[in-house]
């Protein structure tokens, strides 16, 4: 019986190793295709030796999904709107519990934002709707933010966004900009058919907003204008969005589309 159990464990271990062999065999070692990302938290980045193989694997996954008729393109409609997710001081200012270096994401978002303003398309921002009187939720056990009433100003938008009075701030309690807000109604009232999503974090609020938007609006994500603290979470969720929820594309292409918008 003991010998049988040991043999089973050995076979199981060999099977697990075989699963990871494509990433480990020297004969198919892959040179990383990108440099270390400049955004996020340095301690949550991929080891350099894994970046190339992982990105190659994700690219291969997309091809396999395409072969299964996933990852079609939704394209742009005629009436886009832009939403900037959670680029408030709590996420962007150094020293905050959940902040990280988001300067490259902000700079890319500013370019998209400038194009949206020039084209006179609707612009929305989101931030957390902090209220110390709100009762706790089970999710609070997952991330202990320890927010104090005097921290409320941290949920003001990053000053670099230079929000205009006509640009709506959607204050939300949940990851999605749609849950518990009237964002959907505002977009419908404006006749919006395409939602351009920028901001943070790719794996949480950006993803949740794209998920809730995709059944009613064409979702477009300028890939340089979204980000988060963790590199692998960013890459995996960006792929998931591109396969299932919307079109992930270079920010310059998104800007080019915005510049061609004919809006009354």
Notes on the protein architecture:
The chain is an alpha/beta fold and 264 residues long. The protein has a domain of 166 residues: Isochorismatase-like (Rossmann fold, 3-Layer(aba) Sandwich), CATH 3.40.50.850. Helices cover 40% and strands 13% of the residues. It contains eight helices and seven strands. Strands 1, 2, 3, 4, 5, 6 and 7 form a seven-stranded parallel β-sheet that branches. Helix 6 links the parallel strand 4 and strand 5. Helix 2 packs parallel to helix 7, helix 4 packs parallel to helix 8 and helix 6 runs parallel beside helix 7. The longest helix is centred in the N-terminal third of the chain and has 23 residues.
Under the CATH scheme, the architecture of the domain at 80-133 and 148-259 is: 3-Layer(aba) Sandwich
Averaged pLDDT: 88
By CATH reckoning, the class of the domain at 80-133 and 148-259 would read Alpha Beta
Question: What would CATH call the homologous superfamily of the domain at 80-133 and 148-259?
Answer: Isochorismatase-like
């Amino acid at each position: 019986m003991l010998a049988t159990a040991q043999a089973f464990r050995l076979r199981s271990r060999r099977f697990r190793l075989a699963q990871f062999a494509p990433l480990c065999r020297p004969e198919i070692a892959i040179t990383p295709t990108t440099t270390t990302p400049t955004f996020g938290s340095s301690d949550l980045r991929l080891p350099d030796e894994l970046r190339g193989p992982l990105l190659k694997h994700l690219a291969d996954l997309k091809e396999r999904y395409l072969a299964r008729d996933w990852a079609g393109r939704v394209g742009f409609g005629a009436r886009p709107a832009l939403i900037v997710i959670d680029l408030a001081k709590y996420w962007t200012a150094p020293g905050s519990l959940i902040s990280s270096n988001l300067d490259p994401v902000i700079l890319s978002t500013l370019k998209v934002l400038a194009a949206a303003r020039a084209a006179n398309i609707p612009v929305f921002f989101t931030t957390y709707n902090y209220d110390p009187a709100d009762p706790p939720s089970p999710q609070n056990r997952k991330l202990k933010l320890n927010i104090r009433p005097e921290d409320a100003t941290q949920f003001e938008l990053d000053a670099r966004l230079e929000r205009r009075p006509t640009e709506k701030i959607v204050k939300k309690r949940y990851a999605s900009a749609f849950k518990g807000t009237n964002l959907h109604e505002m977009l419908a009232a404006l006749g919006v058919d395409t939602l351009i999503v920028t901001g943070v974090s790719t794996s949480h609020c950006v993803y949740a907003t794209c998920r809730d938007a995709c059944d009613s609006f064409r979702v477009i994500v300028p890939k340089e204008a979204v980000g988060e603290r963790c590199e692998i979470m960013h890459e995996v969720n960006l792929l998931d969005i591109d396969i299932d929820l919307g079109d992930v594309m270079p920010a310059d292409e998104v800007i080019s589309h915005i510049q061609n918008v004919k809006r009354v």
